[in-house]
């Protein structure tokens, strides 16, 4: 059974940084594609980044390219999202997810399992 638990959210000032973690069980990081998406109030969910389990390649949405970095620790089965240069537009609930495939055009719609999310709020 796949279980995903996000942590690391909080309140940060514009320009600040946060690192999100996703503790997992039932996930083989060598074969699962993993990623992060977010959903802001009143908006559709937005895929942010994914990492391929087999190849290790990463893909990012244009909105976070160059600011966010996805990584994983396979020894601990933990997925991370380092977020720098945060702006109020980044305010949302952030979710860790397993993906059916990792690619830039698959970020928004190919989540398979996800956690309950962690809230990130960017404000002065």
Overall average pLDDT:
96
Beta strand %: over 45%
Any idea what the shape is? globular
Q: Strand-and-helix sequence, N→C?
A: EEEEEEEEEEE
Number of strands: 11
Give the end-to-end Cα distance, rounded to a whole number of Å: 40 Å
* Low-pLDDT residue intervals, each spanning 5 or more residues: none
Q: Count of helices?
A: 0
Radius of gyration: 13 Å
Structural category is: mainly beta
Biggest sheet features: 7 strands, mixed
Amount of helix: under 10%
Concise synopsis of the structure shown:
0% of the residues lie in helices and 49% in strands. With 124 residues, the protein is an all-beta fold.
Provide structural commentary.
It is a single chain. The chain has 124 residues and is mainly beta. Helices cover 0% and strands 49% of the residues. The strands form 2 sheets. Strands 2, 4, 5, 6, 9, 10 and 11 form a 7-stranded mixed beta sheet that branches. The protein starts with a strand and ends with a strand. The model has no long low-confidence stretch (mean pLDDT 96).
């Amino acid at each position: 059974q796949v279980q995903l638990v996000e942590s690391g959210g909080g309140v940060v000032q514009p320009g600040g940084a946060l690192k999100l973690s996703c503790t997992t069980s039932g996930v083989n990081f060598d074969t699962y594609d993993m990623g992060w998406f977010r959903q802001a109030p009143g908006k559709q969910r937005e895929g942010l980044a994914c990492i391929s389990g087999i190849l290790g390649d990463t893909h990012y949405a244009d909105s976070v390219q160059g600011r966010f970095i996805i990584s994983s620790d396979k020894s601990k089965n933990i997925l991370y999202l380092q977020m720098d240069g945060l702006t109020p537009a980044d305010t949302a609930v952030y979710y860790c997810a397993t993906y059916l495939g990792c690619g830039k055009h698959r970020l928004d719609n190919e989540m398979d399992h996800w956690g309950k999310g962690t809230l990130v709020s960017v404000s002065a």
